[in-house]
Design a protein that fits this description.
Two copies of one chain form a homodimer. The first copy, chain A, has about 150 residues and is mostly helical. Helix content of chain A is about 60%, strand content about 10%. Chain A contains seven helices and three strands; from the N terminus they run αβααββαααα. Chains A and B meet through helix 6 and helix 7 of A and helix 6 and helix 7 of B. Chain A binds a DNA duplex (30 and 30 nucleotides) through helix 3.
Chain lengths: ~150, ~150
DNA sequence: CGGTTTGACTTTCTTTGACTTTCGTTTTAT
DNA sequence: ATAAAACGAAAGTCAAAGAAAGTCAAACCG
């Protein structure tokens, strides 16, 4: 469906733009072969404030639409962990961090279990490298939690 | 009887879809030569929540009906993936599995993002070994989801 | 009578296009 | 040279048409 593929495109652009994007309505509509108001429809029906998006726009020559995915202060907290990790981390350290996240209601018990599975599930890596791989994974997970 | 054969068809589709399916009501009715509301009747009379089914739908252009079997049994479904993985898996394969889990409501969007983070976050592993590490992690995660 | 079948009608979501508003630029009048 | 007017290029709005699923009551078997 048209609306869905536009929404997907916008989400991808948001992703690669780190939560922000600017688009030209007419241009986009042209590329997708649809009428410009279709873009408006998708934005107003899918990227609403209730779902955590801020929309700004400017009309006239050189106008555009900006979409911003709101992020909460939670991210600052997560960032704190992100920098604390360093480039290698032991299993128990990682799980201590995860416990903090759970305690602070930043993750659910299931998500906690999932993180433990990921962090302890790297059996096929040489022992010397495990710490680095763990840190890798954990940092990526933190980033995912910030979305 | 009509209702029974529709129910049978849906059950078969559920089976081959690993417990989930998406159908277009009008299309199906057309193929079976019956009125669309007959499909609705079968779904509401046979695939009820009490019998372990989740029904979702969307109206309008491109709309559809999704049926998910949740009772019989989550772990069976997860096991299916567990064995399908093998001892090495590519990123896109892994994410395809994860998408299925998401579609089937076995994981939340956040959990999906978390899995992606784990699966794509193993940058500090020699390319040749990545597949194995990924498979490791993914299997562990599946086990975690089974509780 | 109880479960089926049907079809008319409703609701929801999508698509389109005509018309409006806003903004930057360019032209014109003083 | 400057202020006003005109123009064109966006985006906004809205209503109508279209596409699908939902509802419900009447008719129809068993």
């Amino acid at each position: 469906m048209l609306a869905d593929s536009i929404a997907k495109l916008i989400e991808e652009m948001l992703e690669s733009g780190g939560g922000q994007l600017e688009l030209k309505r007419n241009e986009m509509a042209n590329q997708l072969g649809c009428v410009p108001s279709q873009i408006s429809y998708v934005i107003t029906s899918r990227f609403t404030p209730e779902r955590g998006y801020i929309i700004e726009s400017r009309r006239g020559g050189g106008g555009c639409i900006r979409i911003i995915r709101k992020q909460m202060h939670k991210n600052e907290y997560l960032m704190h962990f992100f920098y604390a990790i360093g480039d290698s981390i032991e299993e128990n350290e990682a799980m201590a961090y995860a416990s903090n996240l759970l305690d602070g209601d930043f993750i659910t018990p299931r998500e906690f279990a999932l993180i433990r599975a990921a962090v302890t599930g790297i059996t096929s890596v040489p022992p010397a490298a495990k710490g680095m791989v763990r840190a890798d994974i954990f940092r990526h997970i933190l980033l995912a939690l910030m979305e």
